[in-house]
Every structure is written in C-alpha cells, then in structure tokens.
C-alpha cells in the first residue's frame, strides 16, 4: 500500500512539475509580449500654420496593457522654424515630477500618475506644448520624441515600456510677421490674432542654419500603433553582473541605423551608428558607479519613428575600468627615464668637475 | 623698505624681515584676488526682463508643500510650546521632531525588559497637534538603554530591541489604542552620514541599511495601527548611493527624505531632476512621497537667518520648486535654541523665549507667498538674481519676484510686461514683504493690450505684484 502511494506521489510530481514550469513560462511569455505595447504620439499629427502663429501640440499616450506611473517626455524640433514657449502636464498625468524645460530645439518634462495605487491606463495627454511658428518651411518639418523619452510601468522593472512613437508634421506658410496670434487658453492648434509685444522684449531664439537633430523630410504615418522592436542589446545581458566599470554595450539594429543610448542611473546619452551588418557598440568614457544600471537603446528610422529596447545590469563593487590592467603611457615613461638619466649624469659629472 | 633695511641692518635680518613680510602679505594678496574674481563673476550675471503671457495658463500651483517645519534639538524639552501660537499662525502641515530617544526619556530598562514612557514626548507631540500640524517623527537617536556602550549614535547591543523601540513608538502614535493618529511619517534616524550623528555607512558595522531594516521589521510588527509611512535616509544632502541603496534594499519604503542646505536656490530644482531620473527605472518608487526634511541656505548658524537674506532665499527656493516639487520642504527651524546672541543668529524663524520670541523676516514669507495660489501662467525672462513665477486666480494675475543675491547686495530695476490682457481699467498693486504696499490705476487699450512697469528690487527682497481688472 505504501509503495503504491509513493508511486502515485512520484507520478504526480513527474506530471505536475513540467506542467507548472510550462504554465509559468507561458505566463511569462504573455507578460513579455504585453510589455512593449505603450506608444506615444503627437496630436494633431499634421499641422498647417502661418509664420507667427502660436499653437499647441499634445503628447498623447496609449498605455496598452501597461500600468504607467511616469513618463519622461523629450521633444526635438527644428529651432529655426519652431520655438517652444511652454510645456506642462497633460490631463492624464496630474503630477509634474520634474518641471518643464523649453530650449532651442527641445522641450522636456517628466510627469507622473497621482500615485502608484492609481497608475495611468488608457489613452490621453501626457504633456501639452505651446509652439510658435518662426519661419516658413520648404518641406514639412517634424516635432518628434527624442530617443531618451522614457515610460515606466508597474511590474516592468526598469524596462522602458515605450516602443513606438509618432511625430507630428508641421508646415509653415505665409508671412504673418514676427509675433502675432496667440492661442486662447486650452485651445488646441487654433490661432487667435492678438497684438505683439515690442522687439527686444520677447525672448527669441537666434536662428542658425544647422539642425541639432535629424529631421524627417516627409510626414510620418499618423498611426500610433507600436511596432515590433527593431533594435537589440546583446551585451551586457539582462541583469548580468559585470566586473568592468566601463562595460562595452553592444547590440544589433538595421544596418546604418542611428542608435541613441541612454545609460542610467548616472544619465549619459550617446549616439552610435550601426555598421553595414547592423552591429553597434559603445564603451562609456567615464566609469559607472558600482550598482544597478539601465540602458535604453533607441533606433530612429528615416520617418522619425523610433524603436526602443532596454536592458539592465549591475556593476560589481570594486570593478576595474578595463579587463586589461592599465600600465600607463609609454611617452610619459620615456620622459621620466630621460630626466632620471640627466640627474644621474649630473650627479656623477658635477662632483668630478668640482673636484 | 628694502633699501632702508639694507642700509641699516645686516643682510641676515633683511632676509628674515623680507620673508616674514612675504608670508604676511601673501594671504592678503590671495584674498584680494579671490574677492576680485567674485566681483567680476557677479557682474557677469543676467538682469531680469520679466514677461507674463496672461493667456498661457499652465498647471495649478500648490502652496501647501512649504508649510512644513523641522525643529532641531538644541534643548531636551518641548521647544515649540512657548511659541505655539506663533507657529499655528504659520498654518503648518507637518512639523518634524528629532532626538526622540535621547531628549524625551522614552526608553528605559528593567532587568532584561525594556520600559517605555512616552509622556514627555507626548507633550511635544500635543504641542505640534495644537498648532494644526501633524508630527513627522525622526526615529533618532539610539536609546542609551539599548545602545552599545550607551552611546546614542552607535548600533544597539541587540537589533531586535531597536525593532521593538520602533514598533512601540508606532503603536503609541499611530495605534488605534494609542494617540490614534493617521498618516504619520516615521523617518529612520537624522543625518546618519554626519559624524555628529554616527557617521553611518552603507556597509560594515555601522550599516544604515541594517538600522533601517530593523526599523522596518519593527514597523511590520506594529499591531492595530492606522495608516503610517516609514522612510529615510534623512541624509545631509541628496546622495544617489544612499537613495538607490534604500530603494533596492527590499525593505518597506514609503517615502524618501534628505536635507538640503544650499545657498544656490537653483540647485533645489537640480536635485528634484536628479532624484526623478534616478527613480524612473524603479517604477514602484517613482511616485512615493519625497520630503526635504530640513532646508536652508547653510547648515551653520548665521546672522543671515535673522535678516531678509533668509526670507529671500526661502522665496527663491520655493520658486524653484513650484513646478516639479517635493511633497514637502521643511524649513529648519521654527524657533532658535538658547544663547544665540542679541541678533538671533540661530536657524529659527522666531528667537528663543530668552531672547524675546521675536519673529525674524523669514517667518513672514510663508503666508505672504500663499496669495500666489492659483494656476501658473507662463513667465519668461528671469535673471541671475531676480526670479519669480506668475499665477492667476479669480481674475487676479499675480507675479512673485524675489531678488536673492547669495553673495552680495545686488539691486535691480526690473522691467515687467503683462501681455495679452483684456482691454479695460486695472488696479495694479505692488507689495513687498515687510516693505511698501502701493496701488496704482492702469488702463489697457485694444491697441497694445499690455501693461509695462519698472519695479525696483532691493537686495534680498520679495514682492508680489497684482493686476485686477475692474468690472
């Protein structure tokens, strides 16, 4: 009887363990698939304005299945054509975590849900940006999300759950003159003419002919659907513990793609270009602090759309800057040897001469 | 002098005198160069040219977050009691107390058991409650009854006894059978990184994470209690390694706290940005409350705390935190300790009762700024010294300006333009903290729809400018 019971238990275990492993694995796979479903888009996606018009653009989020707690929004645009005047939080995110900054060609803000108990789900505005049209455009210019835009979600750890962004396309025509229309409060993309303030009192950017960031030359698809990730970080592998304080970060993307890497928790952003085989790599110039770090890699396609992937790793305490021990530069050694020889000679020769 | 010496003294004496002269004058020369550099760099700042777009309405502004105050422990008694009425007038939301276990005789020992007597601490907490605030209790320092060698800045002989102290404290104040308070913040220790308070590290024998872990264990054992929050690390500044060590420690962490003594108000904003960037990869902690549980322009006692300097610094700091702010910023401290001199050099908003309980200029800044509640308006053209923000509420447009010069006496006449106003007659009121309060009439025509004024801002001044359209 005992033997029979034991047999039943063993058989049960043999069936239950693989079944449990399979079901857990499936759940993880489902979770993995659900994670990269958050997208950001700019609305209106297509804007026609006259020089001097002031208009608002909303950065709209579709969280998908994610429970979003915070969004760090970075927008880039052509500063010779557009001036960002203000940026504030959108209706879906009542919490401004880091105040908005508008600068030449950039606007940024970090917004959050009311609290972690009430994360943001669904679709709505994360941020509202007011722009002024500065100069007419020969072809539409874009306002797009920068590669270091980040969306954090409960249950997703340090992953950037944002995988797709859609830019806005702006066409500026006419000669509305300097200054001009100001949008009424709360209005979106509607201009109301008002008198202007005198020259010298309005903080205005100084136009330059050079763009700071690539700008698409044709309008992008207004679709806000997230796309499959086209950029991959191959090293360090997720949650790896690395012994170098300057670990090489490498990955794959489309050949020739521009990949922007942002390394947290000491934020540093660099842009690398994939080679003909789609391989790219970067070694931090400065050592990373011991402890956890996250990397966000974003590949930008020609329309200004982006694909993002993330990884995290830990720099071990006592990590070295390089796997190879550094022994100094040979030039400095030569100089020291030369000085030493001079001292040696002078120490030997001078007493002889004096004697 | 050299010729005189050479002619009248021996060469050896000349050498000695010359060397002494050189040594005496070298520091003076260096000091002179240092001051010259300061003056030159100060002169290179940008004057303000304020422009308010009255149609550009942004987010709502909170005026609660700076109605928080932290009282130090210069006396082992209820220091707030003598000035409770004046503190109540500040409309405090939270008041922080530290030195719980070394000033209020809470913990004793009877044989192998610990004894607890909260009566003295209760008096101090009751005073805080009487001001309309809730207490924030900094669980510090180690009760001598359990501390190793009786030293209050050292670890306990038995960590479980530290956990028990925390448990009993929480049960006493948050317990439904105790004081029955809800929403109390319990902060683990005070400035653990400071030598004076133990020089705790993130590893080794005096590991703050161990101190915190056992506090969290004590908190988890608290029975029949209302909602409360446990957090830290209450360091002397915002340090990434301390914040992330706590975030990744796996312990209960309901809020983050640190102290900021920074003369440059803009660095308060930098701290907020840095903190959020560190926390973004940790979504469970991105939104937890963040408390600056002590702030000021210096951690040292200074005559500046008794002058408009401190008031202007506070206003300039609040301006930096008005958007993207901490949950609370605690001004240190409500009342001076004893023996601060006639000018009241201590950190207090009010001088000690031995020195007349006089209100210092900083005392008045909090309520003064409250009129800025409303929706923020777009304001451009802040300068190096003059900064500000604008709001609108019930049809009145306000601009807060402060001229804070951390190193000197910079004065400035500031042009200010309100754009896109409705045509009509306006009342313009210009009032300074502890200064002039004047009213003018202004007319806005349909031609330019704006008002332009020049406002003279003395050094270390705070002003609120109000525009109200007459019906």
Q: Give a quick account of the main beta sheet of chain B: strands, pairing sense, barrel closure.
A: 9 strands, mixed
Shape of chain A: flat
Q: Indicate the radius of gyration of chain B in whole angstroms.
A: 26 Å
Largest interface: A-B, 48 and 43 residues
- Counting DSSP E segments of at least 2 residues, the number of strands of chain A comes to 20
Summed up, the domain count of chain B is: 3
Helical segment count of chain A: 2
Instruction: Quickly give the structural class of chain B.
Output: alpha/beta
Tell me what portion of residues of chain A adopts beta-strand conformation: 35-45%
Which residues of chain A form runs of ≥5 with pLDDT under 50? 27-35, 177-229, 322-329
Poorly predicted ranges of chain B: none
Class computed from helices, strands and strand pairing of chain A: alpha+beta
CATH topology of the largest domain in chain A: Immunoglobulin-like
Short characterization:
Chain A is 16% helix and 39% strand.
Write up what this structure looks like:
Chain A has 355 residues and is an alpha+beta fold. Chain A has two domains: 180 residues, Sandwich (Immunoglobulin-like); 96 residues, Immunoglobulin-like (Sandwich). Chain A has two helices and 20 strands. In chain A, strands 2, 4, 6, 7, 9, 10 and 12 form a seven-stranded mixed β-sheet that branches. A five-stranded mixed β-sheet of chain A has the order 5-8-3-1-11, with no helix packed on it. In chain A, strand 16 and strand 17 form a beta hairpin. The longest helix of chain A has 33 residues. Chain A starts with a helix and ends with a helix. Chain B is α/β, with parallel strands linked by helices. Chain B folds into three domains: 39 residues; 113 residues, Sandwich (Immunoglobulin-like); 303 residues, Glycosidases (TIM Barrel), CATH 3.20.20.80. Helices cover 28% and strands 28% of the residues of chain B. Chain B is built from eleven helices and 19 strands. The radius of gyration of chain B is 26 Å and the shape is globular. The chains are: A alpha+beta (355), B alpha/beta (471). At the A-B interface, strand 4, strand 5, strand 6, strand 10 and strand 19 of A face strand 1, helix 8, helix 9, strand 12 and strand 15 of B.
